[in-house]
Design brief:
905 residues; single chain; four-stranded antiparallel β-sheet; disordered N terminus; mainly beta
């Protein structure tokens, strides 16, 4: 049962749940920029420019050279409201706090003092200036985090809307206001030096020009004023007709060009010498231009906007206009559906509410693709421009893709919201396909409220199936776009088609309708084979082609699993408290993962029929998809532009999957990259860990009736019988050669005059006569066997053998024979030791190896001694009993295993 995180008691959440057992947040895809202006920095050591953009609660750092991401900052508790940077630090404000980040990642300073949200930042030498929405300006000392100066302004007289530090103006800052006036302040002496009357319009942007004393002022009226603040003289004025000025920047590579941004995404380029408009770069972004910066000394313009895009333009052509050089773009509106494309698990297809279809790479951003925006007529759309395109198609609500024949023809089919015609897309060409599929019976007259509701592609990539809201299901050849038939005499379902799926061999097609029926059809003949009635109409279906399991989400928030082979419902799950948005199977078909509007993602184990994982999110998942390789689960969420990857931790660590209780309360898991920094709560060491975190400590022996193997490596016992062969094989072919004697040198003493060193006489000489006193007649193992014969305890000799290597064990067993200094009593004791090991049901393979070597070495001696023969007959019967017991256990285990492999779910 899913509940909001506010209704879960703190103690209960702490003891009953620790987030997801299987999935762990990895990273976000498709997030590049938001409405905040970017910051451009120059790294002197790397001699490279870096771009910093905000993506919500964190900021990303890209290199301008290739637009590759180089760093992702730690997340902050709230969305970032303002960004700025100096030579060493990046400053980001969220709420009333201002923080400084080092190395583009770690928070090193926090400045506390504002009572309202900060909306303006300006680094200023060893200080940083921040302005909040209460019109309070505070100057902070960067290193000490202390407040240097505070200025309060009356909102009705001077509401600060822009801030800038003029070049060469020591200790001075220039402030712009919504009323239109400007003020120049000396922050060291805390004095107002001059007030500029303004131009009867609010100031939106202040930008330093390449010339000293010259400042460009952007106004709400769309005017750009190039003003000399030293003499209070306006040098030139420009007017844009696209609304307020959002950004201004100047070229510094020798061309007197100024660029200005607008709220509709257009960019105007102005020649400052001739005082005229050079060119208009229309539709540079789909939304307002948030930030613009010319790279210092280069003909490169970097722009970002709220459309989740970063663009780098180069000015190398005639006419003064820029062409797009590099691009990083995600969805400008939240994704509606995501699916992995292909079998390598490296590309995710995503359809968004911005009517675009894009492909995001899980490996690197340079492999991302944009297949474009759907349009009724591409040629007319390009002429009109994307901003004013009246021929664009509605957003894609569902699609299907196959990589089998994508190099030959279109491999993607999509249906659009409330639209009858389905479009095809070509992944290789990254564009819309050649066909628009629509039944011919609707060519002359299209009834109202008739639209395509579900699509699917066959695994061979040749046929597309389209289900309509009227209950009809049509089949098309996707190569030619020719209609190849339909299911049913008139309609496949009485209600709208909710889902279509075809098995991996194109034998069966299954359709789900709003009439609550699941129908199975022969794909080739289009004949109805089977009908199953559900307790509630289905909303979506998802087929795992390898196992033939069909997941069905019903309108009553239940999930059914339908077996295509037996055509029966084999599992039924309940527990979601909202509409189920999407489903995904694990690659092996063992798990069914569901996401619903109750913000829960649940993992169901099909063989056991149990819920094994559940976790809550801040926002409901709209669509989920599992990688074909099983390494990632991808999800898209309500009102979120990103695609989030969750790593499958069961692939790289031991995960204990236990059925969750009926009253399990899931805990909230933050999305990857948006997790707020939380203080670590230290707990008492004596506190007991929850049940799911206790590590299992295996005992030395599980049960007395079970046979337990030793933990010794195989090299200690497996080659005992072949030790003589190994020694013979490893014997050197030639005797070792004596190394050549080194040249004779007389040692000398260092100094100006060389002198020979006196040779030291060694008084201690080692005797070459072997000390016979150190040789023991009986080894410790031999003595332990003699003692064990009287006390019947064989733990010590077994432990001694375990510590020996193969050669040591071989020499010890050879020494047990009477001919080599042993005795029959000790050999009898060894056989009893083997019997004791078999009685304990431990170290079973060691007993077999030791006994085999013993019989190989002393078989003739044993056959001539009646005592040893009696002992060996007892051991033989004991071995036979043990092997019979083992064979019974093996047969039982194999029987259960074969049943589990062949039995149906």
């Amino acid at each position: 049962m899913a509940e909001s995180d506010e209704s879960i008691p703190l103690q209960q959440e702490k003891t009953t749940s620790r987030g997801s057992t299987i999935f762990q947040g990895f990273r976000a895809l498709g997030l590049y920029s938001n409405h905040l202006p970017h910051v451009l920095r120059y790294h002197r050591k790397h001699r490279e420019f870096y771009l910093v953009t905000s993506v919500g609660r964190a900021f990303h750092t890209f290199n301008v050279n290739k637009l590759g991401i180089v760093a992702v900052s730690n997340a902050v508790p709230q969305d970032i409201t303002c960004l700025a940077a100096d030579r060493m630090l990046v400053f980001a404000s969220h709420g009333t706090l201002l923080q400084a980040f080092a190395r583009n990642k770690e928070v090193v300073h926090t400045y506390v003092g504002h009572n309202a949200e900060i909306h303006l930042l300006q680094p200023f030498g060893d200080h940083v200036v921040s302005v909040d929405k209460d019109n309070i300006l505070i100057i902070w000392d960067v290193q000490s985090e202390e407040e240097y100066l505070q200025l309060n302004f009356d909102k009705n007289v001077f509401a600060v809307s822009a801030i800038m530090h003029p070049s060469t103006y020591v200790n001075k800052i220039l402030l712009g206001s919504r009323q239109g006036s400007l003020q120049l302040w000396n922050v060291k002496s805390n004095k107002l030096l001059f007030t500029f009357q303004g131009w009867e319009s609010g100031v939106t942007v202040l930008q330093q020009a390449p010339a000293v004393d010259v400042v460009a002022v952007g106004l709400v009226s769309g005017q750009i004023i190039v003003h000399n603040i030293k003499f209070d003289e306006t040098l030139m004025k420009f007017q844009q007709d696209w609304g307020p000025i959002t950004a201004i920047t100047f070229r510094t590579d020798g061309h007197p060009v100024m660029a200005a941004g607008s709220p509709v995404g257009h960019i105007g380029l102005w020649n400052l010498e001739e005082k005229r408009l050079i060119i208009q770069m229309r539709d540079a972004h789909f939304s307002a231009i948030a930030g613009m910066t010319f790279v210092h000394g280069e003909p490169l313009l970097v722009t970002n906007g709220a459309d989740n895009a970063i663009r780098v333009w180069i000015f190398d052509g005639p006419g003064g206009g820029g062409r797009l050089l590099r691009l990083r773009m995600g969805h400008s509106a939240p994704p509606t559906k995501i699916r992995y494309h292909g079998n390598n698990g490296e590309q995710i297809l995503s359809a968004g509410q911005d009517s675009t279809l894009q492909s995001f790479s899980t490996v690197h951003e340079r492999f991302n693709k944009s297949l474009g925006r759907g349009s009724i007529n591409k040629k007319k759309s390009k002429k009109k421009g994307l901003q004013y395109d009246t021929l664009k198609l509605p957003p894609i609500i569902t699609f299907a893709s196959e990589a089998a024949r994508q190099s030959d023809w279109d491999g993607i089919i999509a249906c659009h919201q409330g639209y009858l015609t389905c479009t095809t897309w070509n992944y290789q060409k990254t564009s819309m396909g050649a066909h628009k599929l629509r039944p011919e019976r609707f060519d002359k007259n299209i009834p109202l409220n008739v639209y395509a509701a579900a699509v699917d592609l066959t695994s061979c990539g040749n046929f597309a199936l389209i289900g309509l809201s009227t209950g009809e299901v049509d089949v098309y050849n996707i190569q030619s776009g020719i209609h190849r038939g339909h299911f049913g005499n008139d309609k496949a379902h009485k209600g709208a088609v909710r889902g279509i799926a075809v098995d991996g061999l194109n034998q069966l097609a299954v359709t789900a309708g709003g009439d609550g029926l699941i129908k199975c059809w022969k794909f080739k003949t289009k004949d109805l084979v089977h009908i199953t009635e559900l307790s509630s109409p289905s909303s979506i279906i998802h087929l795992h082609r390898d196992s033939g399991m069909l997941g069905i989400a019903c309108d009553d928030f239940c999930i059914c699993v339908f077996d295509m082979e037996t055509r029966k419902i084999v599992r039924k799950f309940s527990g979601h408290q909202g509409k189920i948005n999407d489903m995904a199977f694990s690659p092996d078909g063992r798990w069914l993962i569901t996401a619903s509007m109750d913000c829960c993602i649940k993992v169901w184990d099909l063989p056991s029929g149990c819920l094994i994982d559940c976790f809550l999110l801040d926002s409901a998942a709209v669509s989920i998809t599992m990688s074909p390789t099983g390494d990632f689960l991808a999800s898209s969420h309500v009102d979120d532009l990103g695609i989030y990857l969750w790593s499958n931790t069961s692939l790289f660590r031991l995960v204990s999957l236990r059925p969750l209780p009926a009253d399990y309360q899931p805990s909230v898991v933050m999305l990857p990259g948006t997790c707020p920094v939380q203080d670590v709560i230290t707990t008492d060491d004596t506190e007991e860990a929850p049940d799911e975190m206790i590590e299992y400590d295996s005992p030395e022996q599980l049960e007395e009736q079970l046979v337990t193997l030793s933990s010794l490596p195989e090299s200690r016992w497996k080659n005992l019988l072949n030790l003589d062969v190994i020694k013979k094989r490893n014997k050197p072919k030639e005797p070792p050669k004596v190394p050549k004697s080194a040249p004779f040198f007389i040692p000398t003493i260092p100094g100006l005059v060389p002198r020979f060193a006196a040779t030291e006489q060694e008084n201690t000489q080692q005797s070459k006569v072997v000390n016979l006193g150190i040789l023991a007649q009986k080894s410790s193992f031999y003595i332990q066997l003699e003692e064990a014969l009287s006390n019947q305890t064989y733990d010590c000799p077994v432990k001694t053998l375990k510590e020996m290597g193969p050669s040591g064990i071989d020499s010890e067993l050879r020494g047990l024979a009477p001919d080599d200094g042993g005795s029959v009593k000790v050999m009898q004791s060894f056989l009893r030791m083997v019997g004791a090991i078999l009685d304990s049901n431990r170290d079973f393979e060691l007993a077999q190896a030791y006994l085999a070597l013993f019989l190989k070495l002393h078989l003739r001696t044993i056959s001539s001694e009646p005592t040893l023969l009696d002992e060996l007959s007892k051991l033989s019967s004991q071995l036979e009993t043990t092997w019979t017991h083992l064979q019974t256990l093996f047969n039982q285990s194999l029987c259960v295993l074969n049943y589990m492999k062949s039995a149906l779910l």
